[in-house]
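Bench notes, afternoon.
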Amino acid sequence: MRVTKNIFEPKSSRVIRILLSNPGKSWTLRELAGEAGISLGYTHAVCSALINGGYLVRNETNQLTVVDPLTLLRRWAAYHQYSTANTFLDYYSFEREVDRLIEGFGKTRGRYALTGLSGAWLVAPHVRPVIVEAYVKGKEDAGAIADLLRLKPIPKNGNVRFVLPYDEGVFYRAQSIKGVKVVSNTQLYVDLFNNPARGEEASQAVLDFIRNSWSRVLLGGSSNV
C-alpha cells in the first residue's frame, strides 16, 4: 500500500485542506482527487497515511471521513512555515488607515485572497494589523491591484505585501467578507500559527471561530473539536 512520506507537503496538504474545510462530509477517493486536482494514486497515498495516523476512517459505505480534525489542523499549522514557504512582493501605500487599505481590495478584480493578520481582522478581529497581506495568483495580478490602489513597489518593509503562494490550493474555499476576499478559515489559521507578529493571539481567535463553526455542523459537537 502506497503511503506518502509527508502529509503536509504542498500537494498532500490539498487533501487535508479539503477535509478540514468540509466538516462532517464523507468522500470517495475519486471525489477527493477531483476536488484537490491531483491524481487518484497520490490521493490514495495521502489518505492511507491519514488513516494510519488515526485522522481518517472509512464509514459504513466505505467513504472517507476525517476524525480528530483539531489535532490534524494543529499539526499542519505547526509544520507550515508561512514566511519561508511563500514569495513576497512588498509595496507601499500612502493610505494610513488599514481599514481603508483592506476595503480597497474589494474594488479590484484580480485573483487574490487576504491572509495573515489582515485576513484575521475580517474573520475574527483581535489583533489590529499594520500590514495588509494577500495571496495573488501571480505577478500580473499583483501589478494590476497595485496600479488600481496606487501602490509603490519597494524592496522590503512595505505596508502592503503580495504573496506568491507555495501552492494554488491556498485559494480553496476563499470567502468574501464585506466585499473583500479572504482565504478559508483553515488556511488562515495555518498561515497565522507561526507568525511572529502576534500571530499566536490572532490564530487562537481564528481557531475559536473554527471550533464554533465545526460544532454547529457536527451534531452535538465533539470532544475532538
